[in-house]
Amino acid sequence: MDLSFTAEQEAFRDEARAWLEAHVPAEPLPSMDTAEGFAQHRRWEATLDEGRWSAVWWPEQYGGRGVDLMHWLIFEEEYWRSGAPLRVNQNGIFLLGPTLLGAGTDEQKARFLPRLAAGRDIWCQGWSEPNAGSDLAAIQSRARLSDDGSEWIVSGQKTWCSRAVWADWIFGIFRTDPAAERHRGLTYIMLPLDSPGVTVRPIAKFDGEPGFAEVFFDDVHVSVDNTLGEVGRGWQVAMATAGFERGVLLRSPARYVEAVRRLGVLYESSASCDATVRDAVAGAWMDADAYRLHTYMTVSRLLDGEPLGPEVSLNKIFWSEMDVRIHETALRLLGDQAMLDGRWLHGWMASLAGPIFAGTNEIQRNIVADRVLQLPRGA
Amino acid sequence: MRFLFEEQQRSVRDSVRTLLERECSAAAVRAEFDGAARPAQRWRRLAEMGALGLLIPERWGGLGLSEVDAALLLEEAGRFALPDPLVDTAVIAGPLLGELAPASVQDRWIADIAGGGARVAVGLRAFGPHVVDADTADLLLLQDDAGAVHAVLPGDVRLVAHPWLDAGRHCFSVEWAPRDSTALAGAAESARAVAAAVDRGAFAVSAQLLGLGDRMIEMAGQHARSREQFGRPIGSFQAVKHLLSNALLQLEFARPLVYRAAWSVAHGVPERARDVSAAKVRASEAANAAGRAALQIHGAIGYTWAHDLHIWMKRAAVLANGYGGVAWHRQRVAACVLGPARR
After folding, report:
1. How far apart are CA B241 and CA B130, in angstroms?
2. What are the residues facing A203 on neighbouring strands?
3. Which of A212, B5, B52, B289 gives the lowest tally of CB atoms within 10 Å of its CB?
4. Cα(B261)–Cα(B259) distance, rounded to whole angstroms?
């Protein structure tokens, strides 16, 4: 155990900090769930890539720096500390990226990853369907092979696809063998959203912004070169992604460390003498610190060669519920001002989605119970 | 940054676990809860494996290791609900005497502590007015009103017993008269060492609470797998799954705070008090939550004296309440992070 950073890690931190100080936009960008904000966030992705900061843990040939996940955590600490924009390509970088690195062919990695790192392709995910939410294996969208075997012909509907209105590509799983048992016969396919037969219809979220969309596929032709991993093993390929997502990448601890720092500033500036609010602020600090330390433990284990197991489902429950608590505490501190349009109010609305997306917290609790606590499966 | 225990530290955990499986079975813990005397052999075995001298320098026969090396051992002491005064004697008293006592007192007691020849009961003011297991102590370390620490022999005190929740350990008020000859040092010189002892003790108890919580979750899991109602194991019901998952969630996010506290104490970092208190708050809450979940999952059988669960729950409650209760530690975190409380 050594909880200090090496000189090399500190130098990496200094380099990241200096670059961010020189490049982070002085004014916050408009919401990335609006057309204008999306475009500005895409430009920011290109700027990040020019500095080689877009995906530091990827190999250099694909736009990364080839550093380990501990360095990524350090970069994230500096990133959030600097007030830099949200990552509009987060689904691509943090969900698809690791899957491509793990299951993609060399040709696919070379074709997709550099463009992804630079924000030239913005990706959205296509998991859920109208009748397949928590029960993801119930998906019905189909892909069948063309007669000559060179193309998938995709039909069906995906929904809750974040930022699909402006994104360039979608990745997801599609049923390629309807006769197979439901977790089999699925295939992971990537396809351009400007393909003929794709219709994207925006859905306004809780906050009114068109951050979601439903995507319809009407005999869309996709090259089989866009199959990720083995045909019929899409569930396994996707779950590998979900493991990474829940485990480490989707919500780096620095995000909450920064939110709690801002909460402390809010407490400072408030006149609150409510001891229960003070306890909640201190509790939020302990939450964020526990999550930060927990992630250091997880990454230390990974770097020591241990695989991530089902226990990573605990992370997703923890950060999503912590996020809600942090924002609820901020609203309590804001008192009469809490319901007026502002950053904390928008943050609160965003936090409410956390316990639902990326596998609801009920599903995560089932996974923890079944696979960590070894309780018997439900009926 | 490398936040995990090394091979040697994990092997200490494995050996203490093996020892406690033999010397500290649930049946033995239960017997002491029902009034049996504490077996002398267990303390001897702990001394033989080095557990009592872990934090004591080698010149007194200890191993000269750190709180990081002790963390997993203390967690095991919690897992087995070890009743013996491991924390007071080996974690608080040994190092405190080493930092504060005159050479004659050090020479008289420290090697004995490491070797298992002396049990010490501790009464630090930050931990409240009671002294645990004062009746079986060979020495008492007591703080006077001014803050000076005294080494007092059992013959020089009068004990008033308080019946309390944890029948496996005994709670007392100590009536005694501070004398210049018993003081280890003056109040001012003691402050620094006492603060370190408080943090060391609170960290150690946090580690025990992790082990207690873990064991209660394990008990609940076993019960949920084997107990059948409506024709199926109750662990297959989502209400039961989520109850136990929540307990595990709390425990697993208390864990890194406890391990970090070990590091902060071992390295005397400036944020030591904050880190220890965060660990104590979260480990206490997690262990108590694990107990509540385990009790609910066991149902009526868990509410009986005959079942082991109540022993673990009571130990957790007493340790959470003692060594600075949750409220005290939470306020200390808040003061470190947010500054003084407002009125």
Report:
1. 39
2. A212
3. B5
4. 5
- A264-294: per-residue pLDDT in tens? 999 999 989 999 999 999 999 999 999 999 9
The ipTM value here is 0.97
Backbone angles phi, psi at B81, to 5 degrees: 50, 45
B263 CB neighbours in chain A (<8 A) are: 1, 3
Coil, helix or strand for A14? helix
Q: Does B305 touch chain A (CB under 8 A)?
A: no
User: Is this model's pTM higher than 0.95 or not?
Assistant: yes
| The token pair that represents B320 in the structure block | 């959470």
Q: Which residues pair with A351 in a beta bridge?
A: none
Q: Are A375 and B244 in contact (CB under 8 A)?
A: yes
Distance from CA of A68 to the nearest CA of B (A): 12
The interface residues of chain A toward chain B in range 268-287, judged by CB-CB distance below 8 A, are 268, 272-273, 275, 278-279, 281-283, 285-287
- Where does residue A82 fall: left (phi above 0), alpha (psi -120 to 50 degrees), or beta otherwise? alpha
Instruction: Show the CA angle centred on residue B35, arms to residues B88 and B292, nearest 5°.
Output: 70
- Distance between CA atoms of B334 and B211, rounded to whole angstroms? 26
In the numeric block, the tokens 């963390």 are attached to B71
Nearest to B212 by CA among B285, B321, B312, B294: B312
Supply A205's token pair: 């979220």
Q: Are B154 and B111 in contact (CB under 8 A)?
A: no
B255, two tokens: 């864990």
The pLDDT tens digits for B15-71 are: 999 999 999 999 999 999 999 999 999 999 999 999 999 999 999 999 999 999 999
CA-only gyration radius of chain A, Å: 21
Angle subtended at Cα B177 by Cα B172 and Cα B179, rounded to the nearest 5 degrees: 135
Amino acid found at B81: A
